[in-house]
Design brief:
Blueprint (H helix, E strand, L loop, with lengths): L13 E11 L4 H7 L4 E8 L2 E7 L7 H13 L3 H9 L2 E9 L13 H9 L3 E7 L14
């Protein structure tokens, strides 16, 4: 008798995007007024003791390095007032999002030293968030053995 047990398949591991996450004890309004027209706002609100705002470029970048560079460019274009709020922020993260998976056997994400130097010059840090693997959707009624 043939087995009817399903074997679950998963989407491959992949780079998703980079989020710019900013958190401060004080108001972020002037910074938000400058960044929101340039970037896609994902979240605004209080998390713990910090007022937070999260952005992405609005386009899925081809890779983490070019996406981080685009976010750095947006921060470097802040006015002196916006830059003061950035400089006082407790959280200045360039958060690389990755979806885990079983295939391929590994996923390599490179960030150039010149890009890292630009992040460091802004007082930022690079963070990596790995999300769980997602089961692959299979056509309805089809079974894997």
């Amino acid at each position: 008798m043939a087995s009817t047990r399903r074997v679950r398949t998963y989407e491959p591991a992949q780079f998703l995007n980079v989020d710019l996450e900013i958190g401060a004890r004080g108001a972020l309004a002037p910074l938000i007024a400058e960044l929101s027209p340039r970037l896609l706002e994902l979240h605004r609100g209080k998390i713990g003791a910090l007022h937070r705002v999260h952005y992405e470029t609005g386009q899925c970048g081809a890779d983490a390095d070019s996406t981080i560079r685009a976010l750095v460019d947006a921060v470097q274009q802040l006015t002196p007032a916006g830059r003061r709020i950035w400089d006082r922020a407790k959280l200045r993260d360039f958060n690389i999002g990755v979806r885990g998976g079983l295939e391929p056997g590994y996923l390599e994400i490179a960030v150039a030293t010149t890009t890292l130097a630009r992040v460091v010059a802004l007082g930022g840090r690079v963070v990596v968030t790995v999300y769980p693997a997602c089961p692959a959707s299979s056509p309805r009624g089809r079974r894997s053995t």
